[in-house]
């Protein structure tokens, strides 16, 4: 749950959203062992570039707990993070 919250907050922090150009955040599963959070890219004008410390911390937690890393895919249209999940 904390991972999802961090990724949604990250999307809101780094992207603009208006009624005309809404920010779309989609959360879905990929197979049985990954959760995917994707959003359209509408970068806010920022004075400082992102350090990506939140993603680094999320990846470190995933490596420590699940022995697997997150996947980050980024282009001009979409930002996608795939989080491994524990399968019982």
What brief labels describe this structure?
four-stranded antiparallel beta sheet, alpha+beta, globular, 4 strands, 88 residues, 2 helices, single chain
Task: Summarize the topology.
Elements: H1 2-14, E1 25-30, E2 34-40, H2 53-66, E3 71-74, E4 78-84
Antiparallel strand pairs: 1-2, 2-4, 3-4
What features would you describe in this structure?
- This protein has 88 residues and is α+β, with helices and mostly antiparallel strands.
- The protein has 2 helices and 4 strands; from the N terminus they run H-E-E-H-E-E.
- The protein has helices at residues 2-14, 53-66, and strands spanning 25-30, 34-40, 71-74, 78-84.
- The chain has a 4-stranded antiparallel beta sheet with strand order 1-2-4-3, covered by helices on one side.
- A hairpin with a 3-residue loop joins strand 3 (71-74) and strand 4 (78-84).
- It is globular, with a radius of gyration of 14 Å.
- The mean pLDDT is 92.
Strand content: 25-35%
**Rg from alpha-carbon coordinates:** 14 Å
Which strands sit side by side, in order, in the main sheet? 1-2-4-3
Elements, N to C (H/E): HEEHEE
Largest sheet: 4 strands, antiparallel
Structural class: alpha+beta
| Poorly predicted runs of 5 or more residues | none
Helix content: 25-40%
Count the helices. How many? 2
Averaged pLDDT: 92
- The strand count comes to 4
What's the overall geometry?
globular
Q: Could you give the distance between the termini?
A: 17 Å
Kindly report the oligomeric state of this protein.
single chain
